[in-house]
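Hi team, as promised in this morning's meeting, here are the two structures we talked about. I've kept the exact order from the run log so nobody has to guess. The first one is mostly here for context; it's the second one we should focus on when we meet again. Sequence first, then the predicted structure tokens.
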Amino acid sequence: MKHAMIVVTALAALSGTAQLAAAADGQAVYNKSCGTCHNKGLMGSPKLGDKEAWGPRIKDGQTALDESVTKGKGKMKPKGGHEELTADDIKAANEYIISKVQ
């Protein structure tokens, strides 16, 4: 029984670590949740890497970008339609987007 509890605890810890690592991977979040629209500019979304389109948005700051994703903007639904996204996921994806236009 003691060994079973150790194994369960270890698996839970590893699972939590994997989730934290995924949340910090902005490129993975972007590819999974944002790229469908932002890679092609669907529904008027700014394309990844388009400095002219992202410039004014970035000028407003990271917090403003995170809030617009959380609340939705224009035709984009809140969280881009991905309710499972955490605040950390959104922040990481936006950091990735910003890195592509600097």
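And here is the second protein, the one for discussion:
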Amino acid sequence: MNAIRLRLRISLAILLTVVVLGSIGFALIERVPLGDAFYFTIVTVATVGYGDVHPTTGAGKALAVGIILTGVGTFVGVIGNAIEMMLARREHGARMEKLNMVIGAFFSEVGTALLAIFARASADAARIRAELLVSPKWTDEEFARVRASLQGLDYSLRLDAIDLSGLTALLASKREFLVRLLENPVLIEHEQFTGILWAVFHLTEELGYRRDTSQLPASDRDHLAGDAKRAYSLLVIQWLDYVKHLKARYPYLFSLAVRTNPFDETASPVIR
């Protein structure tokens, strides 16, 4: 997309230069008003031919030939690059839609459950919960404000507030699902989500290697807390972005996400 945009900008710059210089040249050589000179240049570049007015001098015709040689290709390039950019944007939009479906599957299978576990053990639970009580009244500006405020919060976790054996069992049961997600080619479009998967998968491996998580030394518990914190901090931001996407595109899924908000201790899927 960036390469196409750069080519389009270069083509437009060249085309604009040809039009400006051609218009000035025709005005001076043919001694015609600037409007007619601009007309000469445009019909020459567009190869649509001349009508009632056209270059009459030898120098004017030579200028027209020069504009044809330099401007026609540039004009075609502008049109071609513009069409290519529109098609690329459409394709990119389709890929992002598929990616959001993958993100949705992740939260449905494991992400929301993980957030609920981490939210209960968060050292800064009150502030994080207060920020993430999403409601249907939220605007894009509110989502942006909350996202910015989340950057400065403390995502440290109290490991003693987490049932490590239960967390290990949950992640182990979703291991194959996580592996399949990592193999999905659409992830190349989203480094942030890829980072989340790696963080969660790493935590899954760390816990899986420990046969008994109830008798771990303090140093190892600190290490696991750091791994969990990494996953938690990334998950929170991604969850907010995903809920914003649902609000904009899928109101019915947004309603369910709000009713099952892992940061809302009173949340319930039951509509009352």
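Starting points for discussion:
The chain has a mean pLDDT of 86.
Residues 58-121 form the longest helix (64 residues).
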